[in-house]
């Protein structure tokens, strides 16, 4: 059996997928509720942190989620080193791209884990409240302004927009092909769970494809307007859906998909043997 499904590595992997699932489930649920005026809020990472902190034992929940996301980051770094070897791949361009993708994901979720831990660290050190600082995508916009000021800034942003658009297309393809699932032939006794995981994953990847597509559109607007303020981030991408006809339904559908993506990861944490998710 592959090492990633046994022992300590499996526990780190499961904790990471579970924490990621919880974040997406909350983000999707809060946004879905906001879409139909049931409470909630069109959400971002900061909204999820605020929601958890307002619950009983909120600090404990945020801290636990931070540790889980850190575990996911460690899992990605483990994959960066070991996954091509585990799968028997030699040093090819494909394995090189895999390592790069895993490494990027490890850095990204390490940053997200820190964003969950930051308000707790500030509160414990006496330098701030346990509430997250909302910067309205300030860091991303500052980086975009910096890139725009460079001689090759626009060319670089076109590349970034193309990469994000490529991610959107990849998400749509994964949703269509359901390539994240192993064949059911070996698991006939849990067919219902298998089908549930598959459907949740397909909805989730499709919703993520829509969000990535809008983010790519925002970057293009930054280029055309030469204005970093045109970038609105994930929360802005969800709000943008409301500008369309039947926007409320569109937002609700995408939010439902994001919640499904969360459920999918929670189920993957339990049934790692059913998926080829990497």
Protein traits:
278 residues, mainly alpha, 9 helices
Explain how this protein is built:
By secondary structure, the chain is mostly helical. It has two domains: 1-134, no CATH class; 135-246 and 268-278, no CATH class. Helices cover 73% and strands 0% of the residues. The chain has nine helices and no strands. Helix 1 (7-35) packs antiparallel against helix 9 (247-270), helix 2 packs across helix 3 (58-86) and helix 5 crosses helix 6. The longest helix has 35 residues, at 191-225. The chain is globular, with a radius of gyration of 19 Å. It starts with 6 loop residues before the first helix and ends in an 8-residue tail after the last helix.
What's the quick description here?
By secondary structure, the chain is mainly alpha-helical. It contains nine helices and no strands.
């Amino acid at each position: 059996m592959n090492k990633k499904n046994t022992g300590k590595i499996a526990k780190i992997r499961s904790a990471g997928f579970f924490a990621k699932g919880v974040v997406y489930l909350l983000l999707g649920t809060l946004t879905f509720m906001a879409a139909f005026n049931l409470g909630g809020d069109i959400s971002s990472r900061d909204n999820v942190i605020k929601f958890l902190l307002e619950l009983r034992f909120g600090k404990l929940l945020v801290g636990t989620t931070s540790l889980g996301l850190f575990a996911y980051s460690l899992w990605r770094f483990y994959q960066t080193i070991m996954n091509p070897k585990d799968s028997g791949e030699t040093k090819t361009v494909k394995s090189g791209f895999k390592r790069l993708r895993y490494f990027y994901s490890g850095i990204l979720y390490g940053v997200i884990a820190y964003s969950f831990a930051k308000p707790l660290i500030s509160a414990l050190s006496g330098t701030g409240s346990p509430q997250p600082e909302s910067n309205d995508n300030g860091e991303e916009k500052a980086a975009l302004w910096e890139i725009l000021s460079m001689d090759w800034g626009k060319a670089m942003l076109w590349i970034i927009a193309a990469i994000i658009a490529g991610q959107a297309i990849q998400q749509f393809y994964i949703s269509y092909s359901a390539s994240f699932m192993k064949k059911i032939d070996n698991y006939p006794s849990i067919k219902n769970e298998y089908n549930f995981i598959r459907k949740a994953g397909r909805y989730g990847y499709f919703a993520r494809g829509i969000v990535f597509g809008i983010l790519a559109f925002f970057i293009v607007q930054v280029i055309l307007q030469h204005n970093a303020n045109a970038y609105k981030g994930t929360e802005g991408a969800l709000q943008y859906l409301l500008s369309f006809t039947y926007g409320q339904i569109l937002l609700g559908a995408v939010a439902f998909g994001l919640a499904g993506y969360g459920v999918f990861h929670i189920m993957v944490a339990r049934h790692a043997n059913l998926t080829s998710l990497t």
